[in-house]
Amino acid sequence: MRSKPSSFDSTTFGQIYSKFNRFKYGEGFRADESWATWYWSTVRCNCCAFPTAKHQLEPTPIEPVLIGAFQGTSGGTTACPVTFYREDLCAVLAEWIPEAVWGQCLHRQGATEQKLPFFTLQVPRRSQAYPHRGLTQLDAQSETGHYACPGRGRIQEFGSSSEAFVEADIRQREVVVDCNGDVFVSKPLAADLKLRQRVPDLRLYKIPVLKEPADGWTLPNDPGWDGTLRPPPGVGQVPDFPCYQPGQRPRWFPPPAPRRVRETVRE
Q: Tag placement on the chain: N or C end, fewer CB within 10 Å?
């Protein structure tokens, strides 16, 4: 294992993603409707799309049933906020994520269900890093900051803050994971592991590491954190967290399978 760097003054991390992402190439794998219904009725928080607070503290494997095809290294499905990774990349990352909880992805085609060479990734909340501590992108915008899900406490950004980590969240680690299961690798380690050469379709989106948060808020791991989100002076009204109402299906929920229409034969 590499020795830990002495300082993160000028370090950048790279968020791992595949060039075959759903924004450019379409979603690829998507959740089977029956599995998505099970997840939304059994596992998820009653306010947001993420798993319950209990599950986030001590996660158990999330094993989605997927349909479709995907040729990339990492991806996700909008029915469940967990990123999945191909098994060859998992083998490289596993050493650097000691608290990783991997979940086997399954593929359904008709009545047949088989294991896929992809695994979802989660880490306990205590190990999650938060990548939204940068400056606001619009100086004139006052409604920029963070709020917490009232159901499971997940912190989420609102407005136009830019992406950045703070050293207190990184904690001298060279690989960190956020609440989505997205993986961020330090630039020196990515070079040492030759990630781009070993996984040709892998991409790294650069995110800086700051000594102090640029947003002025007090969040977990910040000095003075006492369990309450504290905005800096001058922040306007913090909006209500966008909770899902009971029984509400989000716009991106997998559509029902088309109904088969029986043909009527007239004599």
A: C
